[in-house]
Each structure stands twice: as C-alpha cells, then as structure tokens.
Amino acid sequence: MQYAPSPPSARPRRSLARFLPQAVLAPSLAATFLYVVVFALWSVWIALSNSTLLPDYSYAGFIHFAELWRNHRWTIAYTNLFLFGTLYVIGATLLGLLLAILIDQRVRAEALWRTIFLYPLAISFVVTGTVWRWIFNPTSGVQQLVRDLGWAGFTFDWIVRRDLAIYTVVITGIWQASGFAMALFLAGLRAVDPDLVKAAQIDGARMSRIYLRIILPSIRPIFIAVMVILLQFAIKTFDLVLALTSGGPGISTTVPAIYVYDLMFQRGQLGEGAAAAIMVLLALLLVLVPYGVWIGWQRRRERAHG
Amino acid sequence: MASLGIRGVTKRFGALAVLENIDLDVEPGEFIVLVGPSGCGKSTLLAMIAGLETPSAGEIRIGGRVVNDVPPKDRDIAMVFQSYALYPTMTVRQNITFGMESRRVPRAQQDAAVARVAALLQIETLLRRRPAQLSGGQRQRVAMGRALVRDPALFLFDEPLSNLDAKLRIEMRTEIKKLHQRLGKTTVYVTHDQVEAMTLASRIAVMHRGRVQQFDRPRIVYERPANMFVAGFMGAPAMNFLAAEVVIADGRPALVLSEGAKSAPLPVPPVGPGVMLRAGRRVVLGIRPETLADAARPHLEPGSAHAVLDGIVEVVEPTGPETMVVVRLGGREVVARFDPDAAPTVGERVSLGVDLAKACLFDPDSERLI
Known about the structure:
The complex is a heterodimer of chains A (about 300) and B (about 375). Chain A has a domain at about 75-280: MetI-like fold, CATH 1.10.3720. Helix content of chain A is about 75%, strand content about 0%. Chain A has helices spanning about 10-45, 65-70, 70-105, 110-120, 125-135, 140-150, 165-190, 195-200, 205-220, 220-235, 240-245, 255-265, 270-305. Chain A is flat, with a radius of gyration of 25 Å. The two termini of chain A are about 40 Å apart. Chain B has two domains: about 5-235, P-loop containing nucleotide triphosphate hydrolases (Rossmann fold, 3-Layer(aba) Sandwich), CATH 3.40.50.300; about 240-360, CATH 2.40.50.140. Chain B contains eight helices and 19 strands. Chain B has helices spanning about 40-50, 90-100, 105-120, 135-150, 165-185, 195-200, 220-225, 230-235; strands spanning about 5-15, 15-25, 30-35, 55-60, 65, 75-80, 155-160, 185-190, 205-210, 210-215, 240-250, 250-255, 280-285, 290-295, 305-320, 325-330, 330-340, 350-355, 360. In chain B, the strands form four sheets. Chain B has a six-stranded mixed beta sheet, with helices on both faces. In chain B, strands 14-18-15-16-17 form a five-stranded antiparallel beta sheet, with no helix packed on it. A four-stranded antiparallel beta sheet of chain B has the order 2-1-4-5, with helices on one face. The interface of A and B includes residues 204, 205, 220 and 306 of A.
C-alpha cells in the first residue's frame, strides 16, 4: 500500500461523510424523478393511447393530437398562451424593473413602497380576478366611474370585447406579478458594488448609460430567474382567468390549463387532455431549449477566449 | 499636471462632523498620501476631491479652478478603487475604453490609447478577458490602466493595494512609485498602511478624527511627529512613550524618568526653537525602537546625546533581519531593536542604549511635540 493506513476510527467517518450528501439529496431526487420525468412520460403514453374516461393503454397513435388541433377552442387557447405568456412575462419584468430602479434611488419611506408593490402577490388569484372583474366591468368599474365624473362618452369595455378581453388578463397578471419581479430586481440592484457606479460617473457616463451598460448587465442572472418564474406562472395560469373572465366572453380568453382541466375532469377525455398537456410542455421547451443552447454556446465561447 | 488646493473643507453628516476644516495645498506633480486609521475621514476627503461627495463647507480647487460644483466627469481626474470597480460584464478592453466611449473619443484614438496603456502595464494579453478571469494583481493593473488611459490632471487612489496579498502588495507599490516617477502626475493616495505612506509619498497628511494632524515630508513626519498620535501611528513597532520630568543638573536641563528604572539624569532631546524647559515640568519622552538598542552594540555615535537604561527582557520577537525585544523598565514596557546575533533571552537583564538625539519630547496634556 502506498499510503499510511488511516486510524481505524477515521475510516467509517470518512465514508459516512462521503455518503451523507447523496443520502440527503436522494429523497428529493427520487421525488423529482418520479413527479417530473415519470409522470411526463406517463402523460405522453396516455396521449398516444386510446384512453378516454378511464386509462386504456392500447396504442392509438396521434389521433388525440389530430382531434385537438381540429378544435377551434384549443387553437384559441394555445394562441392565448403565447400572447398572454409573452406580454405578461415581458410586461411584469419591465414594470418590476422600473419600480425597482425607482425605489433604488433612495426614496423616502422605501419599506412602505416595497410592501405596497409586493402586496398583490400575497393576494390569491381568485380574489385578484374577482376584484379586477369589478374594475373592468363597464357598469360597475372604471368606465362607469369616469362617466359619473362627467365624461359621458368614455368607453373602457375591454372585458366584454372578444378581441380585447385577453389584454385584461394580461393587465391583471402584470399587476399581480410586477411587485414580485421588483423585489428580486431590487435585491439584485442592491448587491451591485456602489464603486461601479462611482467609477462610471468619473468615466463620464450618464445615469441611463450606467444602468444599460453596467448595472443591468451585471444582474443578468436575476433577469433569468424572474423570467423563468414568471413563465411558469403564465403557463399554469388557471384560477386568475377563471375568476376574471371565466374564459369568456365566449371562449376568447380560454387558456390551455383551463382546456386541459376541462377535457380531463369534466368531459372524461383523458387522452386528448394529456395530448393538450404535452403541447403545453412543448411550448415550454420551445423557449427553454434555445435558451439552454445559447447558454452552452456562450460558455464554450468564453472558455475558448479565456 | 495640476495643483490641488483644499481650503477649510468640512463634511458633516447630520450633527456628525466627519471632516473639520481641512487645509491642504498640493503642488503640481506631488504624490500626497492621506493616511490614518479607519474612520479618520481620509476616504471621504478623497471622495470630495473626486466629486462623489459634496463638502458641507470650504473650497476645493484643481489646477486653480474651484470645482465644488463641477461633476466628477468634468474634473479631469481618474480614480482607482479599493474594490477595483471593474465593470464585470465587460472585457478588459471595454473596461478601459468605457470612459472614452462616454466622452465620444474617436475609435482610432481609443485604440491607440489602449495600446499605449496596455504596453505600459503589460496587460496586452489580457485585453479580451473578463474581470472574473483575472487574478488580483491583474485586476489591479487593469484598474490602473482604466485610470491611466484618461491622462488626467489628477490621480486618485483609494486604498488600491489593500486587497492584495503581502508579496504582491509590495511589488505593486514599487510599480506605482515607478509610474509616478515616469508620468509625474499629481496624485492623492489614501491608505491606512503607514509603510505605503512612507515609501510612496512626497508628502504625507496624517489624519485622525476628521483633522489633518500633520502634513509634511515622510522623513519629518517620522522623525519629528507633530503629536503623540502621529508618533504612535507612523512606524512599526510603535514609538515608546515614557513619562519623565525635567530637572536641572549642572546648570542644564535634564530628564528623570517618572516611573521605573532609576538612572542618571538623561540628556534632553532636541526641542523646538525658543523652548525653555523649566525644572519640574512633566513631559513624555518618545523613543523609537531602533534608537533604543543593545548598549553593547556600537550604534551610538561618539558625542551623541545618549544614555543607558537597565531592564528585564519580557518577550523576544524575531522578525529575521532584526529581533524586537520587549523590555520592562521599572513600571513600563518598551520595545527595543536587537541584532538577531545578540538577542537576549527572556528574563535576562539587559542594558539599553538610548540615542536621545533622535528622541522626541511631548507635552503630556496637549500631546503636542515640544
């Protein structure tokens, strides 16, 4: 043997130390594997099977997908997912960033503002949806209020317009999530070394340029965290839409989560519901895979230059 | 090159005065070091010179122009920060050119400036890297490059070496000195390290509690410290302070140590012009460790005012080139410098030769140099 034998008591302790991290991580890894990978594969299988009211594991091919895409309600829901998802994620990120930058200017009563902007997140989606339904409602909300103030011709009836109702969902979603984005951005802005700003001031950069070129690039990880979290909020949006518009007027604000729920638990169409869920997963991959590829490419480029 | 004038500058945060009535006049091309313990206000003073803080009162002039209301970018200064403050998402080249881009310097001129500075600091190979891919010493160089490329009237350094390890710190210190000798730019340098202050400065401003305690050449600050704070702060190990009383022996003033070692009256060290020491006056005798040494060693020049004190060795601290020995003289501990070959052992009785020509006398109440 090359090495001096370790004292007898040290050896079991060392193997325990090596084993402990794995042991601690194992349950959550197993749970993640079960709930994410296994259930996702199970859904794929069901989507490709003859399942209707009850699971039936005989292979049926892509009939459920074909059925899904023939359905006008699904195409609206899927389009809404992209429209809502894009506007909601970008809107909440930008508004949150703006609020964070404003609060970062050492405003007075900062804690109060922070609390006010963060509060919407503490309110359940159902309450948010209900309150905003009242606000948007032409006969009880903003429209009536402005008309009562004397502007008789004022119209703000997006919630009852088929073409505009989805934007009320976007506005409500942004209202709820931008405070959360603000909190994360503010934490990021506070972590930026104040000497960077001083150095840039001496370098003669205007404040807008300091933010665009120095501060915001250095909190890029926060942008990614915020956008990923908002994206999964967007995809699972369900109760907000249900409380705000119930998917209406007509079917104009239906989203995939409502559609999947409907098929699976109301109409007994497990196969088609699973197919719809797989489409949502694909939509998510459409965003995440290019992002992953981009990150990988950047790392490789950085290593090549290092 | 520009002069720097600071007149009556005061900075208050609420009721707390961080700086009080600071006056400093810096000649063009000088290298000024602001030194003092943390919280003495040196970094605040530098930030006000840079324009990152505004003085509550007083006037700051750069090159004769009052700059109190001039924003940092128009003061023609460049600054190196303790944290380096390199822009993390930019490459080294972008870090260096950012200021020129902000001032819309033509591209060709930018490239020439980068090439010049990169060659000067030997960072040509690093230009495409990001700060995270650099070592501490390389970051330090890039931070200096960013300052040098501006070719400013005034260089400001805020503790630029304190994040480096000891060996690198000494190397960079020498490089900064070389750079200054080569470029001759007026420089203000903040540090808490008295060795940096001594080695770099053409003049040192020792600061304490928001005031400049002494502003003079390093040698004067070291040999004739204006007060006991400066005497204790500059020099490591610190100056020894011994309480003493003036007596008249043979018609001339002499000193008797108040506590501890009985000895013959000591000769009086040099005092300021026109000072008369009356019998019975209490004083503090300040003796640097290197002037308090083994009495057997011939460090005392013949004819110099010297005396011999006896004490017991308490601690022996070898540093390599010399050995610091803590000796108890009656009631007081003093640090003396011994040759490593002649170092005593703990508990030994030693005779210390004091070179009083290089000692200082302070007033015990005002703590000022007499």
